[in-house]
Design goal:
It is a single chain. With 91 residues, the protein is α+β, with helices and mostly antiparallel strands. It has one domain (7-90). It contains two helices and three strands; from the N terminus they run H-E-E-E-H. The protein has helices at 13-22, 76-90, and strands at 39-49, 52-60, 65-68. It has a three-stranded antiparallel beta sheet. A hairpin with a 4-residue loop joins strand 2 and strand 3. The relative contact order is 0.17.
């Protein structure tokens, strides 16, 4: 999923995480669920299990939840890594 922000100026995944927590509306919720309202509230480094944290957990006014793993790298390998992390968190 692509963000509507110039990621070339983001120097680290933690900087990206912080930006998304400050401005969760940048996360394109409508790309995941058509007609969904923008995300309005987000927390960084949300602890799910003893050794498991999600980079960002965000909510919209309708109660929808989005789990976000921040990755600066592009390509299939990075996408697989992020999806694997999200699936592990759901386990």
């Amino acid at each position: 999923m692509h963000l509507s922000v110039d990621t070339s100026v983001i120097v680290s995944e933690s900087a990206l995480r912080d930006l998304l927590c400050q401005k969760p509306h940048l996360i394109p919720m409508a790309a995941v669920r058509v007609g969904a309202s923008p995300l309005t509230l987000a927390w960084p480094e949300f602890k799910l299990k003893v050794f498991s944290r999600i980079d960002v957990i965000a909510f919209n006014q309708d109660g929808n939840v989005m789990l976000v793993e921040c990755k600066l790298a592009k390509g299939r390998a990075s996408t697989r890594t992020a999806l694997g992390q999200i699936l592990e968190h759901a386990n």
